[in-house]
Write a structure and sequence with these properties.
By secondary structure, this protein is an all-alpha fold.
Amino acid sequence: MFTNSLYYAIGEALPKVFGILLLPVITNYLTPEDYGLWNYVNSLVIFLFAISTLNLNTFILKYYFLEKNLLSQKKLLGNIFSFVILFNTIILFILLYYGETITSFYNISVDFYPFIFIAIIANFLNVFSIFPLALFRINGKAKEYMLLNVSKVILQYSFTLYFLIILHLDVLGLFYSLLITNIIYVCIYLYILHSNIKINIDFNQLKVALKFSLPLVPGTISYIIMSVSDRIILEQYVSLFELGIYSLAYTIGFGLNIIALSLYKTYEPTIFKKYKNKDFYSTFHKINVLNILSISIFALAISLFSKELIYYMSSESFFAANNIVHIIVISALFNGVYLLYGTLLTSFLHTKIVALFVVFSSIINILLNLYFVPIFGIYAAAYSTLISYLIMLILSMYMSYKKTVLNYFNYLIKDIMYLLITISLIYFYFFVASNNVSFIEFLIKIIGLLLYIIFSIRLYSVKLSEIIRKKHA
């Protein structure tokens, strides 16, 4: 189980690592306006993908093994596959026919042709991916899952480098690389699926599937809205230059998600497996220590060295991104800690509570963005993101200790105090740091980070010993 979880974590993390490593190339060949345009369209595609899949991949994961034999399993996959592709074909034609009218009506500054047009087609092709990925997870083929994800990203970024460096296609090269990669991988997806599905239409089964999956859609969409609504709203009120600055800061700050999601993929199966066991309390707190220490340490590290990252990984026109990275990092810190508590509540079947928290936080995020972005621009977007993730974290922590076996209030207080210390250090450095990159400052930051790590380990070693004593008691 651990090995499979590790493969899943690598499959999720490596594509994001490649993206960060290629930032120096992308930001040196693109203007902030181009980078803002690319991130804006990506935000639209992420939202569209959630609607396109209707969370039916979750239905497949849950109901596949309830089928009596291999033939009925293939029919289930074929039935959901047929519906999803038909549904997305209808969406595709509607968007292609009315897309230009919609972008003109809402005064969207990004041209429908070719940018949004290519993104819509690429999204349609990408929908095919949910089926082989679900099939790999069902059969425990974590290594194949990882290879499929990672190889696709490597191919896409290879095309990106070719189009940017060799052909000098600027931002259009990114869209071409996305489209060509998805065309190639549709063939791979269909090859994987051809012997594992039997195309058919079963309306009764579709009713069951939609009854199961549709209630999950609002929570999924709300989480995505909270993740991308800032850039969509910013496009209406700030220049593409400012949007590009914000997008780079967001990419660096939420680079922390590489750590958070890797940990999540690893501890999620353990929590679901052990939540009814007598040692669950001890197990959860050990996971919590690993989670909060790892995320907090990396959050502080990103904040401390964001100036160097931006300086060496982008052109001078992007340097203003350093002014808001610390805000985005704190948002990512809140999200990383929330993932653990959200998983905990889900394991105790409080799924409606989790969905309610996400929907409520996303509404707060949208309202804050709509009200303050026209006044304060990208700073309002950054703080709106921070506040919404903070609300989601506070609610989930409170309900976790109220609705589950985690009723030890002193542990919750320790976590809160540790987070407050981390946030204070992030803000302290932001206010005292100089605008220049120097070797002396770099060494001081390394020493400061090491002292923080020592402090963190010593603080939570007490917690581990308390857990052991309570367990034996």
